[in-house]
Write a structure and sequence with these properties.
By secondary structure, this protein is α+β, with helices and mostly antiparallel strands. Helix content is 31%, strand content 24%. Strands 1-2-18-17-16-3-4 form a seven-stranded mixed beta sheet, sandwiched between helices. A four-stranded parallel beta sheet has the order 6-5-10-11, with helices on one face. A four-stranded antiparallel beta sheet has the order 12-15-13-14. Helix 3 packs parallel to helix 8 and helix 7 packs across helix 8.
Length: 385
């Protein structure tokens, strides 16, 4: 990546950024002053690959459920019924709302490939909605970006609203209280609240009441029943750490007493062993080749099933043949784009009912983790650049 892809915007008043991303101010250099430029054909390719990948995820999910293969990727029996139930009713009631593909390549003529899908508890929503737009608005050339996330999220929740009656459904956002999760949850809750079509509230999970009759929140001396639970805690955390809560929540979904976002079937998509299943059953050129064994690969990374933010990812080579974590997926090693100073860049693509917004993270090493920078992007206009 040549330096002429970058522009710098320094005159944004960081005190004016929304509270959703203000906690990032304590993380030095997370919100980068620079923007990275993409040519329109590059954006088109990344969006196209993301759309094809989502179609493959749907196709492979249907194949896996119909052939009773959920156990092959480690989905426990306690989760299988509710996955099947929500998947077969995803159009009527349990729609997928939003997630983020992580991709490698896509720049300077290199093909883009998806390396994972953050489909269960997706983050980076506030940065993409607000910081990216603030920087774009501040460019003297008034560049455009590929960012229709707000519009597409509004549309998703408008479609979901049609499944309920005339009275505004109660939407509860719940997290485990981590700053990043809370900000991602609250920005969605507030956005939905602005539509006036929902009654909304955001709480920590410990303040939510679960019973055989439903999910409830306290309102003074009364308890209000929740219609929609927007959770920022993973399904795999529930079945590994809170099996009792999972059993109760599953029962409530089966009895149609609550709708949970994102739905239980996203536990499949978040699971990296699912990529092995896709490679084996649906060979393609848009998702990085992934296997249960490294025998077919020369350069590869070893990953656990549920590591997040670069956790439990090890680059394997002649000098490094061991990992300090359990390995469930061996994925072909692909090269991230690098700038002239040697920094690495990973592209993200938000997906709702279509590719919705592009964003970029930058790190000093080839594994992008939470010690990274968030880069906004712009579309290079040859007449302005």
């Amino acid at each position: 990546m040549e330096d002429n892809r970058f522009i710098e915007i320094r005159h944004i008043d960081r005190q004016s950024v929304p509270n959703y991303i203000s906690w990032h101010h304590d993380q030095e250099d997370y919100l980068c002053d620079e923007l990275v430029g993409f040519y329109q054909p590059e954006v088109d390719q990344i969006a196209d690959i993301s759309q094809k990948a989502f179609s493959l995820f749907e196709l492979a999910t249907d194949h896996m459920i119909r052939n009773d293969k959920l156990r092959e990727i480690g989905i426990p029996k306690s989760m299988q019924k509710i996955i099947e139930y929500t998947w077969t009713r995803r159009i009527q009631k349990h729609r997928f709302m939003y997630g983020r593909f992580d991709l490698i390549g896509g720049l300077d003529g290199e093909p883009a490939k998806v390396i994972e899908f953050n489909a269960d508890t997706c983050t980076m929503v506030p940065e993409t909605l607000f910081w990216q737009q603030m920087q774009i608005d501040a460019t003297p050339q008034k560049f455009k970006s590929f960012n229709r996330l707000r519009f597409d999220l509004d549309d998703q929740f408008m479609q979901l609203r049609k499944q309920f009656g005339n009275e505004a459904p109660v939407l509860l956002g719940a997290s485990l209280g981590h700053d990043d999760d809370k900000s991602n949850m609250e920005v969605i809750v507030d956005m939905v609240s602005e539509s006036k079509n929902y009654a909304t509230i955001a709480l920590n999970l410990e303040d939510v009441h679960f019973s055989d009759e439903g999910v409830f929140i306290e309102d003074g001396d009364e308890y209000v029943q929740v219609d929609i639970l927007l959770k920022l805690f993973p399904w795999d955390w529930l079945y590994n750490e809170e099996p009792g809560l999972l059993e109760l929540l599953s029962s409530l979904i089966l009895k149609d007493k609550v709708t949970v976002l994102n739905p239980p079937y996203t536990a499949i998509w978040q699971n990296k062993r699912f990529l092995n299943y896709i490679t084996q059953n649906f060979p393609n050129n848009c998702i990085a080749k992934s296997y249960d064994s490294p025998m077919r690969l020369q350069r590869y990374v070893a990953k656990s099933s549920h590591g997040r933010l670069g956790e439990e990812v090890t680059i394997m080579n002649e000098r490094n043949q061991r990992t300090n974590h359990e390995v469930k997926t061996y994925q072909e090693m692909l090269d991230l784009p690098r700038d002239e100073e040697g920094n690495y860049y990973q592209i993200g693509m938000f997906y709702t009912h279509r590719p919705s917004a592009l964003n970029v993270r930058c790190g000093e090493g080839p594994i992008i983790n939470d010690d990274c920078e968030f880069y906004s992007h712009f579309i290079i206009d040859p007449d302005k650049f």
